[in-house]
Every structure is written in structure tokens, then in C-alpha cells.
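Propose amino acids for all 137 sites.
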């Protein structure tokens, strides 16, 4: 199971330039360890090379939002699946979650798989994003 960690700058961006109800959220893959204290934007994460079923910028996560009693929740429409087609994807160890709508693509969190992964042609990775991406209250 992957270890989840939030970026320290993510809270600032949630308060200033991310619109949780309308932004597009994505997960990108990297094999370079995220620094949650200093990395702020997708460009700070060295993304793996696009190709063979993986697009530059990663995979879009469908989301819905709700607010009840002063607590806002961003919920994924389902897990993220990445499938290698026509060759390999990777190696990668980390999946970074970010908003693709604001300038510079602010980072929110990352998943660490513990060791590098390479998807061979036809293999898939399912990223279990849980039932709620985050809540704000």
C-alpha cells in the first residue's frame, strides 16, 4: 500500500488559487522523491517521460464536491488506472496529486509506493485514491 503525504504549500494554494468545485485535478508519476517542504508546483517534481499509455501531466481524476455543516469534501469518481500499451511505463515510485487549473499546477499530496515500479506492456496500476481526496472545515 502506498504512503500518503501532503505538500506543505498545498494548504496555501487551497486558500488562494485553487477552486475545489471547478478545478481539474490530476495525478502525475515521478521517480524522484518529493520534498513536501520545498516542492510547490508540478515542475518541481521530475515527471517520467510520456508514452506507451502515459500522457505528460498524468491522469485526470474525476471529482465531485459537497459541503455539509461547514465541512467541504472533494470526492473522487473512482480510482485512477494507468495501463501500459505498446511498451513500458516507468520506472516510477511516486504519484503526485495536483490541480491542473491554476498557473504552475500546485501540488497537494503524493503517494509513495516504497520502491520503483515499471509497468510492462499490458500491465496496469490502480491508484487507490480513497473515498475522499480531502476535507476542509
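Proposal:
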Amino acid at each position: 500500500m502506498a504512503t500518503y503525504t501532503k505538500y506543505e504549500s498545498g494548504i496555501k494554494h487551497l486558500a488562494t488559487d485553487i477552486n475545489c468545485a471547478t478545478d481539474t485535478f490530476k495525478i502525475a508519476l515521478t521517480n524522484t522523491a518529493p520534498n513536501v517542504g520545498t516542492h510547490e508546483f508540478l515542475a518541481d517534481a521530475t515527471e517520467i517521460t510520456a508514452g506507451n499509455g502515459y500522457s505528460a501531466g498524468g491522469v485526470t481524476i474525476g471529482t465531485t464536491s459537497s459541503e455539509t455543516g461547514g465541512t467541504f469534501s472533494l470526492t473522487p469518481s473512482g480510482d485512477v488506472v494507468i495501463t501500459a500499451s505498446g511498451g513500458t511505463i516507468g520506472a516510477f515510485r511516486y504519484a503526485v496529486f495536483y490541480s491542473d487549473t491554476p498557473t504552475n499546477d500546485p501540488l497537494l499530496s503524493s503517494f509513495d509506493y516504497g520502491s520503483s515500479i515499471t509497468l510492462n506492456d499490458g500491465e496496469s496500476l490502480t491508484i487507490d485514491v480513497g473515498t475522499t481526496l480531502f476535507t476542509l472545515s
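The chain is about 5% helix and 45% strand. The longest strand covers residues 107-119.
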